[in-house]
Description:
The protein has 746 residues and is α+β, with helices and mostly antiparallel strands. The protein has 29 helices and 18 strands. The strands form 6 sheets. A 5-stranded mixed sheet has the order 5-6-1-7-8. A 4-stranded antiparallel sheet has the order 9-12-10-11. The structure holds thymidine-5'-triphosphate (TTP) and magnesium ion. The site of thymidine-5'-triphosphate has 16 residues, from β1, α4 and β3. It binds a DNA duplex (13 and 18 nucleotides) through α2, β3, α6, α12 and β9.
Amino acid sequence: MAPQTLALNTHKAGMEGLDVEKINEILQKASEGSKFYHHKQKCQKRLDAKISEMLKFKSALTEEQIKKATLQMDRLIEELESSRDLTRTIVHVDMDMFYAAVEMRDDPNLRDKPMAVGGTGMLSTSNYAARKFGVRAAMPGFIGKKLCPELVIVPPDFTKYKAASKTVQEVFGEYDPNFCMMSLDEGYLDITDYIHDNGSRYSEYSEDDVSSENVASAIVREMRAKIQEKTQLTASAGIAPNTRLAKVCSDMNKPNGQFYLPPNREKILEFVATLPIRKVSGIGNVMEQQLKALEINVCSDLMEKRGPLRLIFSDLNYNHFLMIALGISDTRLDAWTERERKSISTETTFRGTNDRSFLVKQTEDLCRELVEDLIQKDILGKIFTLKIKTTDFQIKTRAHTFPEATCSLDVLMSTARRLLQHEMDASAQPLSLRLIGVRMSNLMSSAELGPSRQVTLTQMFSKSLSRTSQERKFSDSSTSSDTTKNLSEISGNHTRNTTTESKVSLSEKSCSFDKNNSKQRVTNKNFIEKFLVKSPMKLKPPKMKYDCPVCFQEIEVDSLDTINTHVDKCLESKTSSQVSGSSPVNVVPTDIEVIDICESDIAKHDSDEWKCKGNAKHVLCNNSLRERELGKNTKTSIDVNTEKYHSEGEEHVESAREKQALLCPVCKSESFENELNLNCHLDECLSLRTINDIMQSSTSPRMSHTSNDAGTSFFRTVQNYSQVCKPHPSDPPRKKQKISHNKSDT
DNA sequence: GGGCAGTTGAGGC
DNA sequence: TTCCAGCCTCAACTGCCC
Length: 746
Ligand SMILES: Cc1cn([C@H]2C[C@H](O)[C@@H](COP(=O)(O)OP(=O)(O)OP(=O)(O)O)O2)c(=O)[nH]c1=O
Ligand SMILES: [Mg+2]
């Protein structure tokens, strides 16, 4: 196998001057023959193939092509140079061996010993004594032990790390209120303004380059000293005119050191000239190998080989390469400071197994955790993704997009079950997994969803249709199913983290928790209730978008008739389409597929129930979190509270609907005083076969089967790209690169 | 052709 | 004796629909 596959990464701090040969031998021996090793081998082979394709492509390039591409790159360079900004002083601070340092601080016994934080499965980090043996982050504990038998492995304690991080952030805030944390242990600061306002305190000299260095360095030294004083932890820092350089610089004198790179073009180019490409954040193992194959080892090589690079890589990539070679990157942190979370997930690894019930249980537990997180953070998601890792380390993801954002446990759970089931069924051999994960993305806060924009069909059927959303808001807030009432009114003034989350959105609509978690029978009464009565729509008069409860298509409606007509048509077409079996729905076994339709695709529409129970859950979640901190049993409190709030919620729903006249969406001719009557009527109005059919036809997950085989390399068309790549604001220090070769180009 | 849904892969801490 | 995480972001790509 290529030496890079499992070999020790020596680009990280604390890896200098150790016996790499011996360490690699141990690593090799520890891994050989394992499934992990085989997987890595496969990956390496694929990469090797990709690289050899790339080299073949490169050797076919003509002098002419390269010359032209080089000239085009030169024009880009001019543009980049003209935009070079050397006016800011950016600092990157990175705590030294963070988790390990916290543990060592709290347990003096650990101080002189090689130690690591993590488990036998995986180490998160190690102290410098352990690094001397080659023990490092992302290394399994048992291998760490092989490298260093006396290694002490400490389990992580995130509460401590968060607390330490908070203290560090307080110090940061003194120097730049708009500092930007990239993780618990590192952040960027722009101290330009601080220097301007307070610089004189640090130096009596005038403002030439040398004194600038003195001032900035003195400030950062002071900041690091403050951090150490307050946390007993050391930090390293880099000072440079932009973020990428600052980041590289913070690694230069690690641990407990700092490095200053002056805002001077020549000095920067000098610095970059000998900088190994792997030191640059965003260049990882794969890109390093690709670039090395092109004889690019240090950043200045990127400049030298800019012609071929332009022809081989995507425009995003070669733009990025140029910026690295020139030592140019972001000088403003504004865009980074406002970053919002894009996904939330939880996953777990276990001994590989194909035990279906075990896998299903794991999935369900993960969903519970995820929902708890969502509720605690007061967010809903639109896309649910199931992640699985087979016992041979192949990772697969299966996603489902909901018509509306949700955080309902029922919905997530049934979706997860369905996706998992589908994979199990699709697998030739019994699906054997070692990891399952669940993720929600396309997030929005419950406030963003806007309570006034959610309305049930019940409400729609009533006269409220003609009211403006504002009127509805007012009037709704006077009912007991008040959707605008925020969480604190219901739960009391519970604490909420507002320091880092500027967006404070209290729960106006959340989800039902563990409601009818047991398998349930699907009756057409349920069906009507879930599909028709509680389906929400967006109120956007005069034309409104509305998700049809039958076909799930979004339809534009301007009157009740439009909807009824559409629903009629849908139901008719469903009835006439082929029907599989004729078993009455209410005796359909409690099969996952059946639950799916009614839960995952419809239950999310239970907006009224959500509001009430959602708030309740939110309350109990916060309670449970508090209890957890106090070391109490959380499960009990959840159960007790759920019960209580649940019933309250039901009452709200009832009272809110009591007086509304209802119209049958199928025959249109009847009106009913309450939902029960309507449902009874609809039982007859719709045939069981129809319902069954509808459910059957909407259960299979939508999947795109992409044959995205990264092993087949293609080459990009030689095109003229002259635009400067605008760095994505939400993607600060790193920029992923990928060869994008389109065969058609050659 | 643009936009959306879905999948995979690279990368970082 | 066995044994390789869990959280996150972004880019590239395919297929489908409008
Ligand atoms: C690299 C890495 C870090 N972490 C955690 C543990 C680290 O203490 C923390 C910060 O990461 P790093 O800053 O990369 O590492 P470090 O602080 O432990 O050591 P250094 O002195 O080189 O900065 O993030 C992981 O959980 N997994 C990883 O793969
Ligand atoms: Mg660190």
